[in-house]
Q: What sequence folds into this?
C-alpha cells in the first residue's frame, strides 16, 4: 500500500496544473486506468485525481472508456469502475529515415502506433535541395493518406547518415551529396511547423532496439548497423551516447582501407549511381552460397566478420557493454555472422558481451526517429497541458 | 533573488531532519557562510536555518567561526554576522593506491585536505596476503601519525590494477600475484571497520583529474595512465564509466603484441623481480636523449606514441570525448608526447579532442581514492546526521 501524498499547496491553478500533469503522466504510462489506479500511482487523493481527470478529458488529453468495454464476463456487483485512457490521437508525430536510396516516413500517434507509412525511392546522386523536397513529399503523403491535419503534428524525428551536431546540422557526411553544413533540423522544422530533432541513423537504430528490440532490458550496448553502409552507435546508462561533437561510434575510421575492402566484397560500394538493387542481390547471393558451403563465399564472409569484429572489439574494450547488437540488412544473416563475431570478440576481449541480432528489422532507423519525436512530443504535451490548464485555472 | 521555500510540513522531527540535512549540504559546498547565506542557498526561512544550524553545531557537524576571524578591516557597523563552517574534522577518509612496487596511503579530512601521507615500497612478487598486510600497515601508520582514532574513519577508497567488479572483488589482474578472485573491499572493510570502495587505478586517476586536474570542466574524457604499466579510463556525463563488468578502458588488448613491444622499449617490463628504480632510470635516459635529438631515442618515442595514439584513437572514435588526458609518470614528458599523439589522432579522427597532460601528478590514483572515499563519507554523513537528529527529535 502506498501512502497518500498530500496535494501540493499553492495557488489553485498551480495546484491543479501540477496534479493534472502528474495524472497525465500516469495515464500515459499505463492505460486504461481507473481513478483508484491513478490515485495509487500518483499518490494523490481520489477527489484530487477525479478533478484532474475531468480537466484532462475537457482538454482532450484523456477519454473515458465506454461502459461496454468494461464488461469482461463475470458477475457485476454495482456500477463498474469508470476507466480512462490517454488519448493517443490528441497529437501525432512523424519519423523519417533519409537514406541514399530511399526516404521512409512513418506517421504515428502519441503511443507510437503507426498510422501511415510511405516510402519513396531516390537517386543516390540527388542534391540536398532535391532530397529535402522528397522528404517534404513523403511527410505530406503520410499526413494526407493518414487523414491527419498538419496542425496536429507535435514533433518530427529524422535519421540521416553522417555526423549531426546538437542543433541538428550535418557536420560530416560522405554518403549524401551536398549534405555537409546543412541545417537539417531548422529547414525541416520550417516546413513541418513543429519541433524537428535530427540524429545519426545508427544512433536512432540503437534507440529503436532499446525501445522495441532485443535490448529493452539492457542499460549499455554497442550497436552495429550493417547494411549497404555501416555505422555504429552506443547506448550507455540507458541513453544513446552521441559524444561531444555527435561523432561517437565512428569506429569505421580506425582502419579505413581494410574496412572498405572487406565491406565492398560483401556489400558492394557504399553509394552507387543507380537506384536498382543489383548490389543487394550480389550480397544475397554470397550469403546463400556461404550457407551452402561454397568456400569462396565463406572466405568473403570470414574476412568481413574478422574486420567487423575488430571494430566491434575496439568499441567493446572501450566501454565494456552488456551486449553487442547486429542490426541493419545483414542482421538476417545472423546464422553466419553471429558465431564468427562472437569467436573473434571472445578471443580479444577480457569480458565478452553477448552478441545478438536485432529484432527490429530494416525499419529500425525510422522507428528510432518516431521514438525521438515522441520524446519531443512529451515535452510539448506537458507544455500544452500546463498552458491550457493554467489559462483555464486563472479564468475560473 | 530566490523565492523563500516553505519548510516541509510533517512531524517535527522529520521536518528538522530534512532542513538540517539541506543546511549541512549547503555548508559543505561553501564555508564559511552566514545564516543569511544559508537561507538564500537552501530557500529556507532564516529562523528555520538558525535552528538547523544549532542542531548541526550541537551534533558536531558545524562550528561557529570565532568573531575575530570576521574582522577584515573596514568600519564595523553593529554586531558582525555570525559565520559558520562545516567541521571537516568531524570525520576522516583514507585513500590507498596499491601498486606492484609501492602502497601509498593518504588520510584526509572531510574537505579532502590531506592530514597524513605514508608510502611503503614493496616487492612486486609479494603474495596477496602479504600485500594486504602492507596495506593495513600503511593505513595504521596514516592514522597513528595523523593522530586520528580509527573510529573516526568514515570510509576508505582503494585503487588497484586490474578489473574490479561492483562488489569490490578483483576479477582480472595480470600485475599483482594472487590478486584474481580477491574480495578486496570486503577484506579491507573488515580491517578498517568502515565502508571500503575499490576501483581500478586508471579509473581513480581519471576521477582525480576531474576533481582537481585539467578536466574539472570536462563532461567527457579519455584518460591514459602511462607509467610502468598502462591503463585507460573514461569519464562520460561527468562520471567515471566503469562498464558492465568493470572492464571499460581495457583497450590495451586491441593489439597486445605491438603494444607490449613498444611499451617495453620505452618503459621496461610491466613487473620486475626487483624493487629498485633501474627501469625508471632507463626511461628517463631515453626521454632525455630524445629531447637532445638522439635519433635512436626519438625512434623509440615515435613508435611508442604511434601505438599509444592508435589505442587512444580507438577510444576516441568510440565515445567522441571532449578531451584526452595523458597522466601517469610519462605525463612529465608531455613536450615530446603530446604533439606526436595529437598528430596521429588528428589524422585518424573525424573530430579531434584536445590532448592535455595531467596536472595532478603521480599521486593521481591515491587522490582519486580519496575522492571515492569522500563520496561514501557523504552518504554516511547524511545517514548519521539523520539518525542523530531523528533520535534527538523523538526524545525532545
A:
Amino acid at each position: 500500500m502506498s501512502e497518500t501524498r498530500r496535494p501540493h499547496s499553492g495557488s489553485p491553478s498551480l495546484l491543479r496544473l501540477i496534479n493534472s500533469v502528474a495524472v497525465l503522466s500516469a495515464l500515459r504510462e499505463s492505460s486504461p486506468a481507473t481513478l483508484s489506479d491513478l490515485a495509487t500511482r500518483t499518490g494523490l487523493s481520489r477527489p484530487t485525481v477525479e478533478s484532474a481527470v475531468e480537466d484532462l478529458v475537457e482538454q482532450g488529453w484523456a477519454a473515458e472508456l465506454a461502459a461496454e468495454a468494461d464488461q469482461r464476463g463475470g458477475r457485476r456487483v454495482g456500477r463498474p469502475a469508470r476507466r480512462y485512457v490517454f488519448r493517443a490521437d490528441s497529437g501525432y508525430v512523424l519519423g523519417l529515415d533519409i537514406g541514399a536510396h530511399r526516404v521512409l516516413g512513418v506517421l504515428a500517434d502519441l503511443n507510437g502506433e503507426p498510422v501511415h507509412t510511405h516510402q519513396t525511392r531516390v537517386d543516390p546522386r540527388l542534391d540536398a535541395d532535391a532530397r529535402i523536397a522528397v522528404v517534404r513529399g513523403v511527410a505530406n503523403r503520410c499526413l494526407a493518406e493518414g487523414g491527419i491535419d498538419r496542425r496536429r503534428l507535435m514533433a518530427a524525428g529524422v535519421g540521416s547518415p553522417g555526423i549531426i551536431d546538437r542543433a541538428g546540422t550535418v557536420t560530416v557526411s560522405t554518403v549524401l551529396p551536398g549534405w555537409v553544413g546543412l541545417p537539417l533540423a531548422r529547414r525541416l522544422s520550417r516546413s513541418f511547423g513543429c519541433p524537428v530533432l535530427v540524429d545519426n541513423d545508427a544512433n536512432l537504430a540503437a534507440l529503436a532496439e532499446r525501445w522495441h528490440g532485443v535490448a529493452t532490458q539492457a542499460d549499455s550496448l554497442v550497436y552495429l548497423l550493417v547494411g549497404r553502409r555501416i555505422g555504429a552507435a552506443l547506448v550507455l546508462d540507458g541513453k544513446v551516447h552521441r559524444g561531444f561533437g555527435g561523432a561517437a561510434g565512428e569506429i569505421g575510421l580506425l582502419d579505413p582501407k581494410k574496412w572498405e575492402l572487406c565491406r565492398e566484397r560483401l556489400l558492394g560500394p557504399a553509394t552507387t549511381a543507380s537506384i536498382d538493387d543489383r548490389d543487394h542481390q550480389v550480397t544475397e547471393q554470397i550469403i546463400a552460397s556461404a550457407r551452402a558451403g561454397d568456400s569462396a563465399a565463406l572466405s568473403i564472409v570470414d574476412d568481413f566478420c574478422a574486420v567487423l569484429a575488430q571494430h566491434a572489439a575496439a568499441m567493446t574494450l572501450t566501454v565494456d557493454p552488456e551486449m553487442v547488437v547486429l542490426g541493419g540488412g545483414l542482421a538476417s544473416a545472423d546464422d553466419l555472422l553471429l558465431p564468427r563475431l562472437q569467436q573473434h570478440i571472445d578471443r580479444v576481449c577480457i569480458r565478452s558481451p553477448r552478441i545478438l541480432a536485432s529484432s527490429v528489422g530494416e525499419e529500425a532507423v525510422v522507428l528510432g526517429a518516431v521514438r525521438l519525436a515522441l520524446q519531443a512530443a512529451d515535452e510539448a504535451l506537458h507544455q500544452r497541458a500546463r498552458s491550457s490548464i493554467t489559462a483555464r485555472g486563472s479564468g475560473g
In short: The first strand of chain B starts at residue 33 and ends at 34. Chain B has three domains: 12-86, 91-204+364-381, 216-357. Chain B touches chain A through 35 residues (CB under 8 Å). The longest helix of chain B spans residues 364-395.
